[in-house]
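step: validate -> pass
step: tokenize input -> pass
step: predict -> running
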Amino acid sequence: MSAPVETEFFFPGIHQQFGFFMPDQPAWTALDGLKGFIRDAISPNLPDFVRTGLPLLKHAALLDGQWHEDGFEVVCGTQTRGKFQVMAQGKLRPDAVLLCAGSVFAGRDVELGEGVVVEAGALVKGPTIIGRYTEIRQGAYIRGDCLTGEKCVVGHTTEVKHSIFLDNAKAGHFAYVGDSILGRDVNMGAGTKLANLRFGPGNVFISVEGSRVDTGRRKIGAIFGDGVQTGCNSVTNPGSIVGPGSLIAPNTTVAPGVYGAKSIIR
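step: predict -> pass
step: emit ->
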């Protein structure tokens, strides 16, 4: 850092869900440790019949520790609140992992938690850990070195690269999330883009109370504290750190820097 700055400005209300968040370090240092954390923690569990780079020909379900291609039904309707779920022996099994026909995995180093659903047309690259009851929706693209908590959403035509989603973080529609951290209960409006590469050479610097702080990273997107919401078609510039409970208005371009808790950014 070029000047001493209170570390609280760099840890914007992000719950310490994963062990590599260090409260005495800027929050973006978690991105530096992400690859190592995933490689140490991952327990890949894709079925043997998944063919790398090729779409699944049939639905696959993980039930009671065993992968199946038959003996279950995939349902989606009122009883499942519009979500894909597995029906086996006449009972809904929300705990089952479901890989829909047409989903693609580029590599086998992927861990899927209980109740995860990967819809048709999604492409997942490893190493990646997807937490319990997370939805990877149709057309999603996970480019690897990604980590999600529980009940997250990577939505339709959303691309995620080298990023962290804490519990209940959602990027549901037409989003780009690169080298970023989403705190718990973050909700990104349709078309939100978290840009991660500045036009000029060198590292991304962030202005904080008149000081310029070197992130040490050539690529860094946004860091959202818990409960941040973004409006449709909003864009953050590299190095945007937004405190918990903040709102970003639709069609807003967010300048790099640190925004306090409960900010309204227009």
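step: describe -> Confidence is low (pLDDT under 50) at residues 1-9.
step: cleanup -> pass
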